C-alpha cells in the first residue's frame, strides 16, 4: 500500500456523561482512529485530550468551562485546525461565550496551539460551527448555526489572525457531518482522513506504549557465574524505545570449572510493586540514602497527625509486615504543630537533607515548613532533626498572610534552586480561588527564605482539574532530565477517583520564573484510566532506585468512589524513543510475561 494514501481516519467527538465519567470530563475533545475498514478505536484510552480553559472573574474566582460540537479541519498549510463551541460547566449555553467559538491549530494532533475565542456575533449563541479553507479566495469560511436554526458565515484570513474575522452574513443551511460509527455513548463530530504515516504517529502518541520483544545476546564468553549475572536483557517497545532488564538464569547442568559450551535458559525479570503498597498512606516519597531506602507519606490512618518514616535495605522491605517505622515529628502544641501534617518530602538542598511539609496549629490552616537533619544525624531519630522553620518571603514575612500553603517541593537546575508550592485563599467560600501553583528561587544556604517574589505558575482552569467539588493544582514534584525540567502536579478530586496528574515542562536553560516559558499539557499524564485497578492516581514523587530505574510513587484508591482510602502505589517511569518520560507504564506493558523466557549460548572459558 502507498504510505501516502489517505487510508487513516480520525474522528473527533465528545462523550456522553455517565455515572463516573462526569460532565467536566465528557465535555472535552476526544479522538478515535481507524485504518482501512477497521472499526474506530478511541485514542488516549477514551479520555479527553483537549479541554476548554475556565475563566477568572474580577474577584479571582474560576468559572469552569466545557465544550461541545468540535469540528476538525485542514489548514491551508496541510496541518490541522479545530473549532468548538464553549459551554458552561454543565454543558449549557455560556453567557460569557455568546457569539464566540474556540479555535486551536495543530501540526500533528499531538501538540496544540490555543488561538483563544473567535467572535462571530454579538447577540446570538452558537449552536455548532464548521470551518473550511477556501483556496480560491484564500480565506477560512466559518459556517455556523444559532439556537433558532439560522445559518451564518464569517471569514478569517489565511494567517488565522482572530482579529481579521469578518462580520456574520446570512448563509444557506450547512450540513454538519455527524457520521454513525461503532463507538457508543459519544457525541459524534466529523471525520478527517490522513495519510498512514501521519495517522500512525497520531495513533502511537495517544496509545499506551507496550513491550513487544525481549532479547539477550546469542552467545557470551564467561569464566564465572558472576559474569553471567551481569548479562542483561533488552526490552523493546512499540515506539522503538528500549530498556534494560535483569535476567534470572537457570544454572542447572552447568560447571563453571570446566570449559565448554552450554545452552542456558533464563527469565527476564523486573521487580514490581503490587497495589496497594500501604493503605491509608498518601503523598508518598521514597529517598535512597546511604545504601538504604526511606519512605515518608501523609498518614491518613492517624488522621494526618505526625510525620512517620520507614527504613529498609530494599524497597520491598518498606512494605512488608514488621517494617521499621519511627515518628520523627509529633504533636507539639507549644510550637504549633497540632494537625494536618501534610505531604512530607525529602529533599537534598545544598549539602543538607530537609523534609518539606505543611502543618497547622489549633486553628486549621496548613502552612509550609522545612526541617533539616543535623550533621551526621540519623533520619529515624527525632532528636537528630532541627526544629521546623516556617518558610518566609524575601521581606521576612510569612509565605502567606492569608489562605493556606502546602505541598512544597524543590529542584535545582542550571545552577538555580527553586521551590514550588500550592496556595489557596477563601477555601470553602464563594470566593474560593482554588489551589494555585507558585514558584520562587531560594538560596541553598538559607532555603527557608525566598530570594525572589513568588510567581503564579498554574491555576486549575481545565475541566479535569476542576471537578467533583475540588479546584486543584497541588502536589507538584520535579523530574529533571538533560534537556527539560518536568513538573508533575495533581488536579481533580483529591480524595476521589478523578484525581489525576498533570504536567508542566520547561527546557533547560530558560528562565524558570517566566511563566510564559512553561508549557502546560491539556490532558493528564496519569488518570484513573491509566493503570488497571488504580483509581484517582495523584500527588506523586520520583526517585532513582539503586538499579538505576526512575520510579514514580503516587497514591490511588481501590474503588471508583468520591472519597476513598488513599493508598501508596509505584511503578517504573519509561523514557520513550525521544527521551520523553512516560508516566503510565503499567507493569504488564513494561515487561510482557509472555516474552520473558530466554535462551543464550554460554561459552565457559
UniProtKB/TrEMBL annotation:
InterPro entries: Big_4, Glyco_hydro_43, Glyco_hydro_beta-prop_sf. SUPFAM superfamilies: Arabinanase/levansucrase/invertase. Residues 234-268 form the Bacterial Ig-like domain. The keyword Cytoplasm does not apply. Signal peptide: none annotated. It comes from the Bacteria. CDD domains: GH43_GbtXyl43B-like. The keyword Transport does not apply. Keywords: Glycosidase, Hydrolase, Signal. PANTHER family: GLYCOSYL HYDROLASE, HYDROLASE, FAMILY 43, PUTATIVE (AFU_ORTHOLOGUE AFUA_3G01660)-RELATED. Belongs to the glycosyl hydrolase 43 family. This is GH43 family beta-xylosidase. It comes from Paenibacillus harenae.
Amino acid at each position: 500500500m502507498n504510505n501516502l494514501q489517505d487510508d487513516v481516519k480520525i474522528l473527533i467527538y465528545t462523550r456522553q456523561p455517565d455515572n463516573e465519567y462526569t460532565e467536566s470530563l465528557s465535555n472535552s475533545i476526544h479522538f478515535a482512529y481507524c485504518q482501512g475498514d477497521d472499526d474506530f478505536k478511541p485514542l488516549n484510552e477514551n479520555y479527553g485530550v483537549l479541554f476548554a480553559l475556565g475563566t477568572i472573574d474580577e474577584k479571582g474566582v474560576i468559572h469552569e468551562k466545557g465544550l461541545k460540537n468540535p469540528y476538525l479541519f485542514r489548514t491551508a498549510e496541510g496541518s490541522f485546525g479545530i473549532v468548538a463551541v464553549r459551554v458552561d460547566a454543565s454543558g449549557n449555553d455560556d453567557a460569557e461565550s455568546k457569539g464566540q467559538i474556540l479555535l486551536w491549530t495543530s501540526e500533528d494532533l499531538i501538540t496544540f496551539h490555543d488561538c483563544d475565542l473567535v467572535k462571530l456575533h454579538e447577540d446570538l449563541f452558537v449552536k455548532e460551527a464548521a470551518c473550511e479553507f477556501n483556496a480560491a479566495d484564500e480565506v477560512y469560511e466559518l459556517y455556523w448555526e444559532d439556537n433558532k436554526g439560522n445559518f451564518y458565515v464569517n471569514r478569517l484570513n489565511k494567517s488565522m489572525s482572530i482579529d481579521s474575522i469578518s462580520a456574520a452574513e446570512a448563509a444557506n443551511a450547512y450540513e454538519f457531518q455527524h457520521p454513525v460509527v461503532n463507538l457508543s455513548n459519544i457525541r459524534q463530530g466529523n471525520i478527517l482522513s490522513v495519510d498512514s504515516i501521519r495517522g500512525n504517529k497520531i495513533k502511537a502518541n495517544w496509545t499506551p506504549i507496550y513491550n513487544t520483544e525481549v532479547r539477550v545476546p546469542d552467545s557470551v564468553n564467561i569464566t564465572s557465574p558472576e559474569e553471567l549475572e551481569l548479562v542483561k536483557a533488552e526490552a523493546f517497545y512499540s515506539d522503538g524505545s528500549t530498556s534494560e532488564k535483569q535476567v534470572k538464569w537457570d544454572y542447572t547442568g552447568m560447571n563453571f570449572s570446566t570449559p565448554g559450551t552450554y545452552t542456558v535458559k533464563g527469565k527476564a525479570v523486573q521487580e514490581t510493586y503490587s497495589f496497594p503498597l500501604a493503605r491509608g498512606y498518601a503523598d508518598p516519597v521514597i529517598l535512597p540514602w546511604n545504601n538504604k531506602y526511606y519512605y515518608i507519606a501523609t498518614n491518613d490512618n492517624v488522621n494526618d497527625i505526625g510525620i512517620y518514616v520507614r527504613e529498609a535495605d530494599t524497597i520491598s522491605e518498606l512494605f512488608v509486615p514488621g517494617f521499621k517505622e519511627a515518628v520523627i515529628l509529633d504533636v507539639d502544641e507549644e510550637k504549633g504543630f497540632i494537625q494536618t501534617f501534610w505531604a512530607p518530602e525529602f529533599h537534598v538542598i545544598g549539602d543538607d537533607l530537609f523534609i518539606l511539609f505543611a502543618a497547622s496549629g489549633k486553628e486549621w490552616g496548613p502552612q509550609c515548613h522545612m526541617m533539616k537533619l543535623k550533621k551526621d544525624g540519623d533520619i529515624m531519630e527525632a532528636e537528630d532533626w532541627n526544629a521546623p522553620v516556617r518558610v518566609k518571603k524575601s521581606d521576612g514575612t510569612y509565605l502567606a498572610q492569608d489562605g493556606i500553603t502546602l505541598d512544597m517541593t524543590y529542584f535545582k537546575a542550571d545552577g538555580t534552586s527553586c521551590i514550588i508550592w500550592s496556595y489557596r485563599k477563601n477555601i470553602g467560600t464563594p470566593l474560593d480561588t482554588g489551589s494555585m501553583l507558585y514558584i520562587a528561587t531560594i538560596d541553598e544556604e538559607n532555603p527557608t527564605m525566598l530570594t525572589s517574589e513568588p510567581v503564579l505558575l498554574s491555576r486549575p482552569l481545565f475541566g479535569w482539574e476542576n471537578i467533583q467539588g475540588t479546584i486543584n493544582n497541588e502536589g507538584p514534584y520535579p523530574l529533571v532530565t538533560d534537556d527539560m525540567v518536568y513538573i508533575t502536579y495533581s488536579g481533580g478530586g483529591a480524595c476521589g477517583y478523578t484525581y489525576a496528574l498533570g504536567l508542566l515542562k520547561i527546557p533547560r536553560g530558560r528562565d524558570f520564573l517566566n511563566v510564559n516559558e512553561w508549557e502546560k499539557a491539556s490532558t493528564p499524564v496519569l488518570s484513573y484510566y491509566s493503570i488497571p485497578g488504580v483509581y484517582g492516581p495523584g500527588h506523586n514523587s520520583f526517585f532513582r532506585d539503586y538499579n538505576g530505574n526512575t520510579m514514580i510513587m503516587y497514591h490511588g484508591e481501590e474503588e471508583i468512589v468520591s472519597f476513598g482510602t488513599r493508598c501508596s502505589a509505584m511503578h517504573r517511569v519509561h523514557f520513550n524513543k525521544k527521551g520523553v518520560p512516560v508516566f503510565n507504564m503499567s507493569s504488564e506493558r513494561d515487561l510482557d510475561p509472555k516474552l520473558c523466557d530466554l535462551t543464550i549460548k554460554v561459552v565457559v572459558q
